Amino acid sequence: MAKVAALPLHTLLGGFRRTVPVYGSGGWHTLTDAALIAEASGFVAQRITAYKYKTGTSRDRARTQLLRQELGDDITLFADANERFNVSTAIEHSKMLAEYGVAWLEEPVLADSIDDLAEVARGSAVPIAAGENAYFQWEFRELLERRAASYLQPDVGRVGGVSEFRRVAALADAFNVSLSSHLWHELSISLVGASPMGYMCEYAPLIPSGTFTRDFVVKAGAIDIPDAPGHGVEFTADALVRYAVA
Fold it and tell me: What is the pLDDT of residue 246?
């Protein structure tokens, strides 16, 4: 529809902003402390003001303390548990995160158990983020009705594409909850940028350079939304050949 109308997708969907802030994402448990700080510092060098790292091991406090000491108080920290806790351990863990000013705890318990997630949200010392494993608007509506998350993180590749992401964004607006995204910043910036509740996009540069006809470059901690008709994410001729399925 956007291409037929010769409009950028985000303009067709509302055009709330032209650039979208991003947060650096990584912090895997396998990283050494030096590698963890190097990764986070690389994002900060791009003037990205937030960093997400993994949590859920015996070194959680040490890693959180290290990041806060090395990055300072001006950098927002997000912690991603990848469903590692149960309700009681997640709530207890949130207290430690709050000591270091961590801004959200992501997916602390099994994503399929909204009962558990809602219970954690009621007792957590930090806001809860969730949604990368939620499918279609009805799961997100239940998350919101149960007050199970303060940040929604739909994945455009899982949730049902652009149309369903748009419906989730409308729910975020209706419930006054911040909208982020899970991965695929190349597409997600157009969708988050169209929403009044758009917050930040996850920035994890997973696609090899030269795959798309345009570079989605971080400038001053944000990415410009493509102004081409449609979403502006197109493969180069070389990439179409390189990744073709025989």
Answer: 67
